[in-house]
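Bug report

Summary: structure tokens for Argininosuccinate lyase differ between web form and batch submission.
Environment: batch mode, default settings.
Steps: 1) Submit the sequence below via batch. 2) Compare with the web form result.

Sequence submitted:
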Amino acid sequence: MSRLWDKGAPLDERVLRYTAGEDHALDNRLVEYDVRASIAHAEMLNAQGFLPAADLEAIRRGLSEIAAEHAAGKWQVSLEHEDGQTALESLLTERIGEAGKRVHLGRSRNDQVLTALRLYLRDAVDELKQRVEGAVQALDELAAREGDVALPGYTHMQQAMPSSVKLWAGGFAAELRDDAEGLQQVHRRLQKSPLGSAAGYGSPNLSIDREATAKKLAFASVQQPVTSVQLSRGKAEAQLLFEISMVMQDVARLASDLMLFYTQEFSFVALPDAFTTGSSIMPQKRNPDVFELIRGRSASAQACLLEVMGIVAKLPSGYQRDLQLIKVPLFRGIDLCLDTLGILPSALAGVTFRKDRIRLDPSIHAAAEANELVVKEGISFREAYRRIGDKLRKT
């Protein structure tokens, strides 16, 4: 298959396999977005007088059919294609002839793939936010079911102050709501259209309308100047992975609490059999595997963030092939967060607190008693603190 960049010289197949890497497979999730951007670009070329109406109609029809066939599983981007952009242009040209070669005027694979990626990430952010809200709802429902159950509040792993299931679940719900707001903020960078920046320096002597394609694709603005586009690569991606890391950190701490509460020593909660597994050697055991893996995958999310930041760090300006490597940790981070948030609400729905097993040490009310003395006798808190401490030491 001819490459879009082919100059006629033979290529060692090892080079193709090494440089394409996983990129061709990863591009399968971008096909529908690449098609949308390509149609918008073709419509702009037509409006600017660079593409006849008949060619535009053939391109629009051909790309729509190719996208529908991809969605139906009739074809996939393969190593032979090298990447999704080559696959689409090659398939389009096979289907409609010379008109398929006209669509690439005024753009490069660089701005083409980045446009598709940002369109995809906009949807991914919205889906992640929706799933975070699903976890919040599960916590709210848990608080509504068992909120009145008293719990010890811990500091330094010691019972410190009285708490409740409502306070405990409400704290995690509040932080996840904050995470949802953080995800929403990623849109600021994703709403800048890179389309038409081509290889990073625009298209000299060609009058294209970047505002038109930005509007058609619902971008808030055109990214200017064109040289800023490649410098922005990795920023929205890292910001999204940072927010994913925050989500995963919060649910990991939630999971850690539940696993502690599930131990025989605590025995504060019961977990549903449907969300625990058995032991291959110990008949009595049920293992909280789901929550263990939620805890562990917070480290995977952080690793994805660090990998993206490490790839971009110290790159010179302009496009560099290293940027292709961002897709692997980016997509992995998105997928592991979606998977985690997909299972968490159902797991939480089966959590019950064992009120009869929860014991609060009497000393847990010491701070409240000190506050009461301050109010009752008008003494300083430090004096009240001393008196309550003395009383506890004597008991």
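Above is the batch result. After comparison, the two runs are identical; trailing whitespace caused the diff. The radius of gyration is 28 Å. Residues 270 and 352 are 5 Å apart (CA to CA).
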